[in-house]
Amino acid sequence: MKSQPRRILMLAGALVCMMGVMLGTIIAFVRQDLHTEISVLKQKLSAAEQEQAVMVSNTTASGADMEEHLELKQKLSAAEQEQSVMASNTTASSADKDENMEPHQEKFLSNPEATNDYDQYLAIKHIFNGLPTTSSSQIKPMILKNFIRRDGKKGLKKMDITLATQLSTSKFKNLLTQLDYWNGPASVAVYISKLEDLDMLYNFTRENRKYVHETSFHLVLEKPGSLLYPINILRNVAMEAIESDYFLAIDVDLVPFPRDCHDRLVSAYFNIKLVDKESLLFILPAFALFPQEGEEYATADMLPSSKEMTLAMVKNGKMDQFWKDKFPSGHGPTDYEQWFANTGKKKDSFYPIHLSYRSSLSFEPYVVGFKPGIPRYWEGKSVIVAFLSFVWFHTHLLTWYRYAVLNDFYAVHLDHPSIDSRSKMQQLKASSAIFERMQSSFLRKRYGKRGMPTAKEQFAFYAKSGREG
């Protein structure tokens, strides 16, 4: 009987030894599987990055491509963390973490909710580093639509108006003023030409959530060589990504009026009853706000508070028609005298204007319109910047769009140092030959030889009995 406990202890010891051997074998297999999984993930990630680097110079990366790339990085990170935990039960001290952390990364990681967002920015930085320097107009920039998607509380309806604009990261301050006055959904294309631009975008969107929560940001990534700022590519990206059927196309240096412009414009626009309103573009007259004496830049605190105040500031020489002295044909057809004459009077909400062939070659207003079917901006980089938007508006006339001016809405340009009128006219002259080739080839082939509508045809929509201003 005394030997019975001894046998039990021996059996228990043997069982423990066997379990220890089995556990060690299992751990070894798990470690081997993890090692294999990590190797496979690294190979897949490397292949994905090489494929993106090869394709990026002539293709547009989709959100799905980016998600797949990020998913691989996350899987690899999780596997490596698991391997680290199994190898040691100790963790790195706070001092070790701080020592290995990049200076700008520490700020981002201080907010736990922002960690995943920052990982996404790191992935974009890695891809940007692999981009070639763009020195040919045949190589298109890399485009990431909805890199940051709007998170407005209200769902966006098709019967809504989205502001579409574009900018480089040096214009974030202007964008903030624009979005503040607009106070509605916006689609913004951002030009990324260096790694620092991504940091600036990250900080801007985090620090200004109040103003950008209804804004979707799209990235146009390019390492520029000798090429111009690809403004029409950016404009197309912003326009194509809007979720509503209606748009306000405007540059970032302009502030839409009146304040809370979105809600007011939606109400006014959809109360206009016209047959075939979808082929009509409504203009917001553009004004220049001049800097104070001794200053180079006009600032937001100088902006008018009403149309009446705008009229008074024009009379006092503090504001005027945008580019009136330097390039009057750019906005002259808007007919500012009629717009001012309608101030404070019972009137229709808009008035029609007529464009001749010649005036259509230099007209560049800011417009509200129906997005489906609208022509795209021409993306030829050989056309000088000053001429690019003119092609878009001339194309509208070739496709029989017509124009009207909104009486109670307008846009104010915060003036800044710019090229003089002589320089701009030289640019226009240099571009005219290119535009003539477009007329005879690209535009004629695409839209035929129907020609522009006559003045009578342009005003026909206004004369119909069904209109209600």
How does this structure look, described?
- With 469 residues, the protein is an alpha/beta fold.
- Helices cover 47% and strands 15% of the residues.
- It has a nine-stranded mixed sheet with strand order 2-5-4-3-7-13-9-14-12, with helices on both faces. The protein has a four-stranded mixed sheet with strand order 8-15-10-11. Strands 1-6 form a two-stranded parallel ribbon.
- β3 (161-168), α6 and β4 form a beta-alpha-beta unit.
- It is globular, with a radius of gyration of 30 Å.
Strand content: 15-25%
What would the average pLDDT be, to the nearest integer? 75
H/I helix tally: 16
Helix-strand category? alpha/beta
Strand order of the largest sheet: 2-5-4-3-7-13-9-14-12
Q: Uncertain runs with pLDDT below 50, 5 residues or more?
A: 53-64, 85-116, 465-469
- End-to-end separation in angstroms reads 110 Å
Keywords summarizing the entry:
alpha/beta, nine-stranded mixed beta sheet, 15 strands, 15% strand, disordered C terminus
